[in-house]
Design a protein that fits this description.
heterotrimer, B: mainly alpha, C: mainly alpha, 19 helices, 77% helix
Chain lengths: 505, 117, 493
C-alpha cells in the first residue's frame, strides 16, 4: 500500500467506523467490537506511515479540488505524524476505557456516543494530516460540530448550557477570526499550503503581522488562550471518556497543533522572530498559564481543576512556540505528546473515581488511595508529569522548553514556567497525599438519620467500594505506563520534533 | 425652458405624485388600487408625450406624409396598459377575498384585527 | 432546426403549458403538465449553458427581426447560469409540490395553482433570457402577477393581505422601472441592452440618464427587497403555501438581482456607474444594514418561516455587497451566491413544508422535541442551517469565502467584519430552532406526528444534498460564476 493511499484510508476508516457503529447499534458487543477493530486499524495505518515521514518523506494527496486552485490536500509532516500517532493510539485505549465506563455508569445513548466519537477522531486525524489551511479549517470545524453532541450527551439543562457555550465560542472564534485570517493569507500569498520556512515569509511586514497573528491565535479557540477559554471547563459536563480523549487529547491538541503549524509553516519561525509586533503572544500565553493555574488551585471539583490545568498546559505549548527559538519549538512539539499522555491518565483516573465511588470533589478524596491503589497510583504519575518531574514525560518536554527560553533570553517565560510548576505542584500533589495518607471521612450516624435523608456533598456517606471495572483500571494504568515509557524512550517523538524545528538530529 | 412646451411633463409629475400619495395615505384598499392606477397613467402619459415628433402625424402609413410620430412608445404603452389592467383586476379580486375574510376593506381595521390575534 | 429555437422554446413551453392546465382542470393532470414543462425547461437550460460555455454568447432574434428594432434574446454565461438555477429549483419543487399543495390549497383551486406556477416560471425565464429592457418589464410583471396569486393561495387569511401589499409595492417598483426605461429610451432611442451599452457613454452626463438610473435601481431594489424596500417580503414568504415559499424564495429575488446586474453592468456597462459619487457608499450601507439588521431581527421571530424570510433579506445583502465591490472576485461571489442561496433557502423552506404537513404549524413553540418524531426532516434542517452559517463543505462557505476574499482584495475591513458578524448571528437564529427541536422534550398532549412522506423528503434531501455536493466540489459552479463575472465586467473595458 502506498503511503498516499494509507493517508486517505486513515481519514476514511474513522468515518466508516461511525457508520458501522450506527448499523450495529442494537447489538452492544458487536458495536464495541467495531470500534475497537477500527481503532486498531487506524493505529496500524498511522504506524505504517511513520517510517516514511521519519526518513524525511511527506506523502501528499489531493482527493478533491474545492475552489479553483485550492483543494482539500493531505500532507503528512512530522508534527502531524506525531499528533496522528497520539490520537490513534489513545483512541484505542479510550475505547477500552469507554466500554467499562459507559456500561459501569449505565449511560444512555451509547450508540450515538461511539458514532460521534469516531467522527471526532476522524476529524482530528484530518486536522493532523492537513496539507493546507483550507483542509485544516474544514476538519477543525467538523471537529467542533462532531464533539458537540458528545459534550451535550446527558441532555440535561446544564449540558445544554455548556453545549451552547462550547459551540458558540468555538464556532464564533473560528468564523470571526480564523476564517478571516485564512482568507487574508490566501489574498496575500495566493496559496494556503504549509511551507517549511513559512508561507508568508517575506510577504507581510510590520503591524499587520501582529494583527494576523492575533486573528490566528484567538481564532484557534481550541488552544484555549484567554479570554476564549471558557468552553473547556464548560465541556466538563460531558462523560469522562469524552473529557479524557477529546478535551485532553483530540480537541485541545488540534488547537495547539494548529497554532504551532501556523507559527512554523505559515509565518515561519525566523521571520516572525524579526517582527516586533508578534511579541505579544508570549505575554498572552504567560497570562493564561498563571491565571488558569490559580483558578485550578481554587477549584474543588476535580474535573474542573483538571480542565483549568489543561488550559494552563496548552499555553505552555503556545509560550514555547512564541519564544520562537528552534529548541523551544522542539519543546512545544514534545509537550503536545507529553501532556496528552499525562492528562488522559488524570482524566481516566477521575472517571474511575466517579464510576467506583460517585465522588466528584477533591475534598472528598481523602483516603481513597487505599481503596483504589491502581487508580491513584496512575494519578500520581500523571501529576508528576504535570509538575514536570522525572521519570515522566512532562520532564522531557519542560526541559526543552526551559532550555529554549534560556537560550532565547526570555526570562519572563522562564519565570512563568517556574511559577506555574510550583502552582501545579500545589494543586496536584496534595490530592495524592490526601488520597494515600489521610483517613477516609466517615459520615456521622446523626447525618444518616437526617430529615431529608439526602447526603450533602461535604460529608458523603461511606460507600464500600473497590477499584473501578477492570477495563477502566487497565486503561488508566496503560496510559500512566506510557507516560513513563515516554521518558525512558523519547526517541520517536524527539526525532519528529527535531524535524519540525528544522534542527538536524 | 418654455413652460407651455413642457406642460405634459408637469402633468406626468402631478399625476405620479397624486397616485403615489393616494396609495400611501389612504386606508381603503380599493382607493389604493385607484391610486396605483393613477400612478400608472402618469407613466403612460410620459411615454406618449415623448413619442410626439414635432410636426409629425399619427403613425399610420398614408400617401404623401413624410413625418410620423414615433410608434414604438405607443406599442409599449399598449403593453403597459394591458399589464395595468391585469394588475387592477387582480388587485380588486384580492380586495374582494379580503372583504370576505376580514369583513372590511379598511387597512387600519385589518391591522387592528391582526394585532388582536 | 429545433435546436436553434431552444431560446424561444425555453420560455414558450412553460407559457403554453399554463393555459393547458387551465383548460384541463384536473389537479393531477395539471401537476403532471407542470412537471413535464419544468423538466423540459431544465433540459433546455442545461443545453443552453453547455452551448454558451463552448461557443460563447448566443443571440436569438424573435420573429427574425433584426436587433435593435426587434426583440433579441441574448444568452451569455450569466443568463445561462440563472436559467439553470431557476429550472433546477422548479424541477425539485414540483415533485415536492404534489403532496404539499394538495394539503394546503383547496382541491378546487389546485389546477389554478399549477397554471399560475407555470406563468411564474415562464416570467422568470423570460426575464433572464431577454436582451430587451422593455421585454424585461413585461416578463417581470408576468412573474410578479402570478406570484401575487400564488402567495394569496396560502391557508392563513393573512396571505391575502400579504399578497395585496406585495402587489402594491411590486407594481410601484415595476412602474419605476418602466419610467427609467422610458427616460433611457428618450435619450438613446434604443431598447436593446447591448445597443444601449454602446449608446450610453454619449448621454451619460445628462440629468435625464441620472434620473433614469435612479428609477431603474429603486424599482429593481423593490423587487429584490433590498433594505429599506423589503417590507413586503417577510409576510409574503411566511403566509404563502410551503411550495410557493420554497420556489419564490429561491428564485424571485435572485432574478431581480440578475436584472440589476444587467442594468448596472451591461446597459450601463461602458460607463462605470459605481464610481458616481455616493452610489457605492449607499449601496454598501444598505447591504450592510440588511445583513446585520435582518439577521438580528431573525433571532426574535417565533415563526420559523419568518426567521428564514429575514435570513433571506440578509443573504440579499450579501449579493448586493458583491455587486458593490465591482471586482471579479466580489461579483463572482455574488453570482455563485445566487445559486448557493437558492439551494439553501429552497431546501430549508421545503423542510418547513414537511413540518407543516405533519404538524399544521411552523411556530417554534409547536416544534418542541420534533427531532425525535421527524428525524430525517430535522436533520435536513440542521444540514441546511449549517450551510447558512457557512460551515466548510457547504455552499454557504464557498459564497462567504469569495465575498470575504473580494472585500480583502479591496481592503474593505468593515465589509469583512459585517459579513462575518452576520454569519455569527446566523448561528444564533439557526441554533435556537435546532435546540428546541432536539433538546426539549415533546410536551404532553402534543399531536402524535410521523415522519414526512417520501414524496416530500426525497426532493428536500436532494436540494440539501446539492448544498453539500456543490460545497465540496465547487469548481464547476465557480468556473461559471467567475466566467460570468468576467463577462459582466468586460463591458467596462
Amino acid at each position: 500500500m502506498t503511503p498516499e493511499n494509507a493517508v486517505l484510508l486513515c481519514i476514511v476508516v474513522p468515518f466508516a467506523s461511525a457508520l458501522l457503529v450506527v448499523v450495529a447499534g442494537a447489538l452492544p458487543d458487536l458495536r464495541e467490537t467495531m470500534t475497537l477493530i477500527s481503532a486498531g486499524i487506524l493505529f496500524y495505518l498511522v504506524a505504517g506511515i511513520y517510517p516514511v515521514v521519519a526518513a524525511g518523506g511527506n506523502p501528499t494527496v489531493t482527493p478533491i479540488e474545492m475552489l479553483p486552485g485550492l483543494g482539500v490536500t493531505f500532507t503528512v509532516e512530522p508534527l502531524g505524524m506525531l499528533f496522528a500517532g497520539i490520537a490513534s493510539f489513545l483512541w484505542f485505549v479510550t475505547s477500552i476505557y469507554s466500554i467499562g465506563y459507559m456500561r459501569g455508569h449505565h449511560e444512555q445513548n451509547q450508540t450515538r456516543f461511539y458514532a460521534y466519537f469516531a467522527i471526532a477522531i476522524g476529524s482530528a486525524v484530518g486536522v493532523a494530516f492537513s496539507g493546507n489551511l483550507l483542509t485544516l479549517f474544514i476538519f477543525y470545524e467538523t471537529l467542533t460540530l462532531s464533539t458537540f453532541p458528545l459534550v451535550a450527551h446527558h441532555g440535561s439543562e446544564e449540558a445544554k448550557r455548556a453545549g451552547r457555550v462550547y459551540l458558540g465560542l468555538l464556532l464564533g472564534t473560528s468564523i470571526a477570526f480564523l476564517l478571516f485570517a485564512i482568507i487574508w493569507t490566501w489574498v496575500i500569498a495566493e496559496s494556503l499550503d504549509f511551507v517549511a520556512g513559512g508561507l508568508l515569509a517575506g510577504k507581510i511586514h510590520g503591524p499587520m503581522v501582529g494583527v494576523l497573528l492575533a486573528l490566528y491565535a484567538f481564532g484557534i479557540g481550541k488552544a484555549a488562550l484567554m479570554p476564549f477559554h471558557r468552553w473547556l471547563p464548560a465541556a466538563m459536563v460531558a462523560p469522562t471518556p469524552v473529557s479524557a480523549l477529546l478535551h485532553a487529547v483530540a480537541v485541545v491538541k488540534a488547537g495547539v497543533f494548529a497554532v504551532v503549524k501556523v507559527v512554523v509553516y505559515v509565518f515561519g519561525v525566523d521571520s516572525l522572530a524579526r517582527e516586533a509586533s508578534a511579541g505579544w503572544l508570549l505575554y498572552v500565553a504567560a497570562f493564561t498559564i498563571v491565571v488558569a493555574s490559580v483558578i485550578a488551585l481554587r477549584s474543588d471539583n476535580l474535573k474542573q481543576r483538571l480542565a483549568y490545568s489543561t488550559v494552563s498546559q496548552l499555553s505552555y505549548v503556545v509560550i514555547a512556540v512564541a519564544i520562537l527559538a528552534p529548541i523551544s519549538v522542539i519543546g512545544a512539539t514534545l509537550h503536545i505528546a507529553a501532556h496528552a499522555f499525562a492528562k488522559i491518565t488524570l482524566f481516566f483516573a477521575a472517571g474511575s473515581i466517579l464510576v467506583a465511588s460517585h465522588k466528584t470533589l477533591v475534598s472528598e478524596l481523602d483516603g481513597i488511595g487505599r481503596r483504589m491503589p491502581w487508580t491513584m497510583g496512575a494519578f500520581f504519575i500523571g501529576a508528576l508529569s504535570m509538575v514536570g518531574l522525572p521519570p515522566t514525560a512532562g520532564f522531557v518536554s519542560k526541559w526543552y522548553i526551559l532550555q529554549g527560553a534560556f537560550q532565547a533570553d526570555q526570562m519572563a517565560a522562564v519565570a512563568v514556567i517556574v511559577l506555574s510548576t510550583l502552582l501545579n505542584a500545589g494543586y496536584f500533589l496534595p490530592i495524592v497525599y490526601a488520597a494515600f495518607f489521610r483517613e477516609e471521612r466517615r459520615s456521622k450516624p446523626a447525618r444518616k438519620r437526617s430529615k431529608t435523608g439526602v447526603n450533602d456533598g461535604a460529608h458523603p456517606p461511606l460507600i464500600e467500594h473497590g477499584e473501578a471495572p477492570p477495563t477502566v483500571v487497565a486503561s488508566v494504568v496503560l496510559t500512566a505506563a506510557a507516560t513513563v515509557v515516554f521518558f525512558l524512550y523519547p526517541d520517536i517523538a524527539l526525532g519528529l520534533a527535531r524535524q519540525v524545528a528544522g534542527v538536524s538530529p | 425652458m418654455e413652460f407651455p412646451g413642457l406642460i405634459n411633463y408637469w402633468i406626468v409629475v402631478v399625476l405620479m405624485m397624486t397616485g403615489f400619495y393616494i396609495v400611501i395615505a389612504h386606508n381603503n384598499l380599493v382607493k389604493k388600487i385607484v391610486g396605483l392606477n393613477i400612478f400608472q397613467v402618469s407613466m403612460f402619459t410620459f411615454y406618449i408625450t415623448m413619442a410626439k415628433v414635432k410636426g409629425g402625424t399619427a403613425p399610420i402609413l398614408a400617401e404623401g406624409i413624410a413625418q410620423y410620430s414615433n410608434p414604438l412608445p405607443h406599442v409599449l404603452i399598449l403593453t403597459a396598459i394591458v399589464v395595468g389592467v391585469a394588475t387592477t383586476a387582480l388587485g380588486l379580486a384580492l380586495v374582494v377575498r379580503i372583504r370576505d375574510a376580514y369583513g372590511t376593506v379598511e387597512d387600519d381595521e385589518i391591522e387592528a384585527q391582526e394585532n388582536d390575534r | 432546426m429545433t435546436a436553434a429555437q431552444i431560446p424561444a422554446l425555453q420560455v414558450v413551453v412553460a407559457l403554453l403549458a399554463a393555459p393547458v392546465c387551465l383548460i384541463l382542470r384536473r389537479p393531477r393532470v395539471a401537476w403532471l403538465i407542470a412537471l413535464v414543462a419544468t423538466w423540459a425547461s431544465l433540459v433546455m437550460a442545461l443545453i443552453l449553458l453547455f452551448s454558451v460555455l463552448k461557443v460563447g454568447p448566443i443571440s436569438y432574434l424573435l420573429g427574425d427581426w433584426e436587433a435593435p428594432w426587434g426583440i433579441e434574446y441574448r444568452i451569455d454565461m450569466v443568463s445561462a447560469f440563472l436559467l439553470v438555477i431557476v429550472t433546477t429549483i422548479g424541477s425539485l419543487v414540483i415533485p415536492y409540490a404534489q403532496a404539499s399543495v394538495e394539503a394546503e390549497v383547496p382541491a378546487a383551486r389546485v389546477y389554478l395553482f399549477y397554471c399560475m406556477y407555470l406563468l411564474n416560471l415562464a416570467g422568470l425565464l423570460g426575464i433572464v433570457i431577454t436582451g430587451d429592457v422593455f421585454n424585461l418589464f413585461v416578463f417581470l410583471e408576468i412573474s410578479s402577477l402570478s406570484s401575487y396569486v400564488l402567495i394569496s393561495l396560502g391557508k392563513d387569511r393573512r396571505a391575502l393581505i400579504a399578497a395585496y401589499r406585495y402587489l402594491v409595492m411590486g407594481t410601484i417598483g415595476a412602474t419605476f422601472y418602466v419610467i427609467g426605461v422610458g427616460l433611457t429610451y428618450m435619450m438613446t432611442g434604443s431598447l436593446n441592452m447591448v445597443d444601449l451599452a454602446t449608446l450610453m457613454p454619449a448621454v451619460i452626463d445628462t440629468r435625464t440618464i441620472h434620473v433614469a438610473l435612479a428609477f431603474l435601481t429603486v424599482g429593481l431594489s423593490l423587487k429584490l427587497a433590498l433594505f429599506p424596500l423589503h417590507v413586503w417580503l417577510p409576510n409574503a414568504y411566511t403566509y404563502a403555501p410551503s411550495a410557493v415559499s420554497a420556489f419564490i424564495a429561491a428564485t424571485g429575488t435572485k432574478v431581480a438581482v440578475y436584472a440589476l446586474l444587467r442594468i448596472v453592468f451591461t446597459v450601463f456597462g461602458e460607463v462605470d456607474v459605481l464610481s458616481f459619487p455616493g452610489v457605492q457608499e449607499v449601496l454598501l450601507t444598505l447591504a450592510a444594514a440588511a445583513m446585520i439588521g435582518a439577521s438580528a431581527t431573525a433571532i426574535y421571530q417565533e415563526n420559523v418561516k419568518r426567521v428564514l424570510a429575514y435570513s433571506s433579506l440578509a443573504q440579499i445583502g450579501y449579493m448586493v455587497v458583491g455587486i458593490g465591490m465591482e471586482s471579479a472576485t466580489g461579483l463572482a461571489g455574488s453570482i455563485v451566491h445566487l445559486f448557493n442561496h437558492a439551494l439553501m433557502k429552497g431546501g430549508l423552506f421545503m423542510v418547513l413544508g414537511c413540518v407543516f404537513l405533519r404538524l399544521g404549524s411552523v411556530e417554534i413553540a409547536d416544534m418542541h422535541g420534533l427531532a425525535k418524531r421527524m428525524p430525517l426532516t430535522m436533520a435536513a434542517f440542521v444540514a441546511g442551517g449549517l450551510s447558512l452559517i457557512g460551515v466548510p463543505l457547504s455552499v454557504g462557505f464557498i459564497s462567504k469565502w469569495y465575498l470575504v476574499q473580494g472585500a480583502l482584495e479591496k481592503g474593505w475591513w468593515a465589509a469583512v467584519a459585517v459579513i462575518l458578524a452576520s454569519s455569527i448571528l446566523a448561528i444564533v437564529y439557526i441554533w435556537r430552532i435546532v435546540e428546541v427541536a432536539y433538546f426539549r422534550p415533546r410536551p404532553e398532549g402534543a399531536p402524535a406526528v410521523s415522519e414526512a412522506p417520501a414524496s416530500l423528503l426525497v426532493p428536500t434531501w436532494m436540494m440539501i444534498g446539492a448544498c453539500y455536493y456543490f460545497g465540496i466540489d465547487a469548481t464547476r459552479t465557480l468556473d461559471v460564476a467567475v466566467g460570468a463575472a468576467e463577462t459582466l465586467l468586460g463591458g467596462l473595458r
